[in-house]
Amino acid sequence: MAIQACGSDNVVVWKFASTSGGTYNVVNKKNDSCLDGSYVQVCGGGTAQHWKIGASGSGGSLLRNTDNGQCLEADGSTVKMAACNASRKAQLWSN
Q: Cβ of 58: how many Cβ atoms within 10 Å?
C-alpha cells in the first residue's frame, strides 16, 4: 500500500468500523476495502483485518494487528508491519 498526501479524495481517507472484542476494521472510504496487514483487500472478516488501537505516544496511537501482534509502520512511501514500539514516530497514527 502506498502512502499518499492527504486531500479531499476519499482514496486517502479511512474509517474505523467496530468489530467484536474491541477490535476494528480499517476501511477505505472510497472503495470500502479493508486494511489487511499491510495490504488492502476485500473486507472478509479475517483476523488479519482486525486492529486494536494501542498505546499512545507523542503524536498518535499504535495500530496493532490482532492476527500477528505487529503494528502498522510508515516506511518511506509505503507501509509495513513491525514490532510495536510507541517511541517510533513512524508507528504513530492520528486523524
A: 8
Strands (E), the chain: 14-18, 24-28, 34-36, 39-41, 51-57, 60-65, 71-75, 78-82
Q: For 64, which DSSP code?
A: E
pLDDT tens digits, 42-81: 998 888 999 999 888 778 999 999 999 999 998 888 889 9
Cell of 85: 514500539
Number of Cβ within 10 Å of residue 40's Cβ equals: 17
